[in-house]
Amino acid sequence: MTNPENPSSGSPAPAKAPARDPWELPDVSGLVVGVLGGTGDQGRGLAYRLAKAGQKVVIGSRSAERAQAAADELGHGVEGADNAECARRSDIVIVAVPWEGHARTLEALRADLAGKLVVDCVNPLGFDKQGAYALAVEEGSAAQQAAALLPDSRVTAAFHHLSAVLLQDPDVAEIDTDVLVLGESRADTDVVQALASRIPGMRGVFGGRLRNAHQVEALVANLISVNRRYKAHAGLRVTDV
Amino acid sequence: MTNPENPSSGSPAPAKAPARDPWELPDVSGLVVGVLGGTGDQGRGLAYRLAKAGQKVVIGSRSAERAQAAADELGHGVEGADNAECARRSDIVIVAVPWEGHARTLEALRADLAGKLVVDCVNPLGFDKQGAYALAVEEGSAAQQAAALLPDSRVTAAFHHLSAVLLQDPDVAEIDTDVLVLGESRADTDVVQALASRIPGMRGVFGGRLRNAHQVEALVANLISVNRRYKAHAGLRVTDV
Fold first, then answer.
1. Residues B204, B196: contact at Cβ < 8 Å?
2. In which residue ranges is the amino acid composition biased (Low complexity) (chains A, B) (predicted)?
């Protein structure tokens, strides 16, 4: 018999443990959120939305000055620091760096990210005349690469399908999308779901283990096709949940 | 300058060609739809919904007798035939066979499927104790494998994220989900979008080229995780379109 809540658990669950309510999520309002790559469009957008929702946010960049300048623009108490200090000061660290710098950035921050809950939202994409396409990643996905490079961190994946345009637009009150959250530990994915759900309109939905992160990252290529065809800023909703 | 409607086009579009309304889709009500693997859960569910919506449907199976028996159960004018006859009699052929038999089945039907609009909805997945995961496919995806095996057919991909349970439940009046439709030719994807949109609640949305089919197929592994966690029959909606 497998335990449907945790089929990989080494020890069997009590035979009649009641199923936990998947929407009962922890209070994360007191946690500090760092955003590596926080001066990029996606990072800035996320930092803005989380800070506006009342979260303490520190954005990181290679240059502390640029991080501070971006933080000042964002307001809502956002602070800026270099990436290492951003990591050290944060409980949850969102990785929003360009794919090109992903491995190098994380490798350099291994010690600073030890013990942290890391949320990878990087989409390894290539672009040519026909549009966007998914890049092959040796580890399987950006999130799995992060997990391989950060053995002392708790790595999750989320926030892939957000429109940086909508996130940064102060006239947009609600972000009409679900956020698929992937990870190996329910405690960790619950925290990230709770964080996503703090942003009005947004909802964090558990989306599986990290080995299934590739397709979630790669689906951004399809959303780019959707955006081009429909002149939209597409997001995703999971129905029946 | 790239033409945003067709960036791969060899010849440039007229400078001020008005953008076509992406929701202006052809009338497909007179087309015959075949469903290869029409005796399986997914195939039967799709055949049932399309026939109920007024489409002429022929389900195919290796055995004409089993196809006919399933067709009789489904009602709504559904007919049964062996796979080759199903293909020959249809204008649009939905491929809903198990991944294990995908290549072999299509190879054997190459001549019968020549000139047809093929809609691949197969999800190459593996299963173990931790749940479902995406299988690597040499051609990139099931849809690309179909395109490679069927050089004389027009291959598209769609209908990946449907719950066979909901499709087959006569008490479910509407299927609350969008259908991402992928393909190389707008004429073909428009037809498949129109077909999906005939089913109440369902909407066909263009989702990119076949090279981006892998992640759409593989995302079913994530939806299986969603279904397990939330005890749901999850589908997807694209927001802002």
1. yes
2. 7-17
For B125, half-sphere exposure in the C-beta direction (CA atoms, 13 angstrom radius) is 27
Q: DSSP assignment of A109-156, as one string?
A: TTTTTTT-EEEE----EEEETTEEEEPP-TTSSHHHHHHHH-TTSEEE
Q: Do the Cβ atoms of B212 and A205 come within 8 Å?
A: no
* 3-class SS of residue A4: coil
Decide if A215 touches B, using CB distance below 8 A.
Answer: yes
Residue B208's alpha-carbon distances to A141, A223, A241, B1, in angstroms, are 21, 8, 26, 20
Instruction: Parse chain B into domains and list their residue ranges.
Output: 27-230
Query: Side-chain half-sphere of A36: how many Cα atoms within 13 Å?
Result: 34
| Closest listed residue to residue A37, CA positions, set A122, A151, A135 | A122
| Distance between CA atoms of residues B136 and B43, nearest Å | 23
B239/A236 touch (CB, cutoff 8 Å), yes or no:
yes
Q: Single out the residue of B96, B121, B123 nearest to residue B35, CA to CA.
A: B96
Degrees, nearest 5: CA angle B138-B143-B145: 40
User: Which of A122, A75, A72 has the alpha carbon at shortest distance from A97?
Assistant: A122
Length of chain A: 241
**CA distances from residue A183 to A177, A211, A215 in whole angstroms, order as listed:** 19, 9, 14
Topology (CATH level 3) of domain B27-230: Rossmann fold (3.40.50)
Q: Which of residues 160-179 of B touch A (CB under 8 A)?
A: 163, 176-177
- For B103, residues 6+ apart whose C-beta sits below 8 A from its C-beta are B145, B149
Q: Which residues contact A198 (CB under 8 A, 6 or more apart)?
A: A28, A29, A50, A53, A54, A55
pLDDT at A10 over 90: no
Q: pTM higher than 0.90 for the full model?
A: yes
B4 in contact with chain A, both atoms CB, cutoff 8 A: yes
Are B34 and B92 contacting, i.e. CB atoms less than 8 angstroms apart? yes
CA dist., res. A96 & res. A45, Å (int)? 10
Q: What is the H or E stretch that residue A13 is in?
A: none
pLDDT per residue as tens digits for the range A16-31: 667 789 999 999 999 9
pLDDT at residue B18, as a whole number: 73
Q: What tens digit of pLDDT does each residue of A198-231 get? A: 999 999 999 999 999 999 999 999 999 999 999 9
Instruction: Give the Cα separation of A48 and A75 in Å (integer).
Output: 8
Judged on CB neighbours under 10 Å (0-12, 13-18, 19+), B110 is middle
pLDDT tens figures, B143-194: 999 999 999 999 999 999 999 999 999 999 999 999 999 999 999 999 999 9
Percent of chain A scored above 90 by pLDDT? 92
Share of chain B above pLDDT 90, in %: 92
CB of A20 less than 8 A from some CB of B: no
